[in-house]
Specification:
78% helix
């Protein structure tokens, strides 16, 4: 037990992050058992396709939240938080954070508005053209889901800055609360026969709880600085110079990530219908939950990585990162193997969920891809902590190959599609990312 505790290295940030991920796994597992009981196969297809389509919000967020975390974590290196939750220290760093708050508010307000109209009109057209049930059965649900998704996008900027300032544990605690209440509402909607309306439960509760948290939490209010930081009468911070150079590269990577991680379900929906889309959507949901648990060790310490980079503590940075990456990949692999043990038990006792999943070959391909994706995430996070984004071309090429492969497959054979997806990740994305990582070690050593 002592060795396990030492290996996991659980502190407040990692602990709450991990607790949130574990709860997500448990709640997701319960949901996966309830979906076959309370949704028809067609509704299941719509449910998971709804979740995949709203993933296009990544094109509107454009990586800004990650930039906010990186820049605010570097500014935090020159600040301390006193007992009154007020930042003390370098005035220039305070103004830099204030600049991030002001700029991100404007950006997210504009993008959230555009996102709503794109989801509302574009999504309605897509489901009208490819769907198999009447429009009145899903249209109001889709519009409501689009609205709450857009509001959550707007609110996410404040959470990103707080996370960069070392509030990862608090943010994880918030997300745990959101998830707990959201899933309870989701299950109640299932029990009362609400059908596809259940898809709205988590986005709706997220809006309410996040709004309340931001209103009550005063860590950013302590940075209420009205005057811009000037040098020779000129404002020294600007979106063009301080945010855009990193954001556009991360934006390309994140936009490509939609096609890498979320494009499969809509393709299957369009080619093979809602039932097959429901199967692949269910499988991807399971493996996404596993990967987020593994990533907890990395994401919880992104702020700390940024601080070490700012202080040029290279030896400490590299040792710290290697420990985090090893834990992340090991836990992901263990959970993946444990999942297959559970699946064989489910198959043996003939639980209904087994018939709602793809064949075993597809599941194995997804497991392998998931482990390598966590490794890629770990390496790319290390590089991004240096306020650089070297993964843009890698992401674009990988996304193009995945989309091309899906397009060329005449019918959406799930084993072939997942095999192609796994091949691109393992044979191209990971080796390319590892080469870039080694170059970073040589460059900064």
């Amino acid at each position: 037990m002592k060795r396990l505790k030492k290996f996991l290295a659980l502190d407040y940030d990692v602990g709450y992050g991990l607790l949130f991920r574990i709860w997500t796994i448990i709640a997701g597992g319960i949901t996966l058992l309830l979906i076959p009981e309370y949704l028809t196969p067609v509704q299941q297809g719509y449910y998971f396709t709804f979740l995949s389509v709203i993933g296009i919000q990544i094109f509107f967020e454009l990586g800004l939240s990650h930039v906010l975390i990186i820049i605010s974590s570097q500014a935090k290196a020159n600040l301390t938080l006193n007992l009154l939750n007020i930042f003390e220290g370098n005035e220039q760093s305070k103004h830099k954070i204030k600049f991030l708050i002001s700029t991100s508010n404007k950006w997210y307000a504009f993008m959230a508005t555009i996102l709503f109209f794109v989801l509302a009109y574009g999504g309605s057209y897509y489901f009208s053209e490819t769907g198999s049930i009447q429009k009145n059965e899903w249209s109001i649900i889709w519009l409501s889901l689009s609205l709450f998704t857009s509001i959550n996008l707007f609110l996410s900027s404040r959470l990103a800055i707080c996370e960069g300032l070392g509030e990862f544990g608090q943010i994880s605690k918030l997300r745990l609360t959101q998830s707990f209440i959201g899933y309870i509402v989701l299950w109640l909607l299932f029990f009362y026969g609400s059908g596809l309306w259940a898809a709205m439960a988590i986005p709706f509760t997220n809006v309410l709880i996040t709004s309340f948290w931001i209103y009550k939490r005063n860590i950013l209010k302590s940075l209420n600085i009205k005057e811009p930081f000037l040098q020779d009468g000129i404002t020294i911070y600007s979106y063009r110079n301080d945010i855009f150079p990193l954001q556009w590269r991360i934006a390309i990577s994140w936009a490509s990530a939609y096609f890498i991680f979320n494009f499969m379900t809509p393709v299957v929906f369009a080619k093979n219908g809602a039932v097959e889309a429901g199967k692949i959507g269910l499988a991807l949901s399971i493996f996404n939950s596993i990967s987020t648990i593994g990533m907890s060790w990395i994401s919880a310490k992104l702020s700390d990585l940024g601080v070490l980079v700012e202080k040029s503590a290279r030896q400490e940075l590299d040792m710290f990162f290697k420990q985090l990456a090893f834990r992340a990949i090991s836990v992901t692999a263990f959970l993946g193997i444990f999942l297959f043990l559970i699946l064989y038990i489910i198959k043996f006792i003939n639980i209904n969920i087994w018939n709602r999943l793809p064949e075993m070959t597809a599941m194995i391909f997804l497991l392998i891809a998931t482990i390598f994706n966590v490794a890629i995430y770990s390496l790319s996070t290390y590089m991004r902590a240096h306020s650089e984004e070297p993964m843009s071309l890698n992401s674009v090429v990988s996304a193009c190959l995945i989309v091309f492969g899906f397009y060329m497959i005449e019918e959406a054979n799930l084993s072939i599609m997942t095999g192609w997806y796994c091949g691109v990740i393992v044979l191209l994305s990971f080796p390319w990312c590892f080469i870039l990582f080694k170059k970073y070690n040589i460059r900064f050593s």
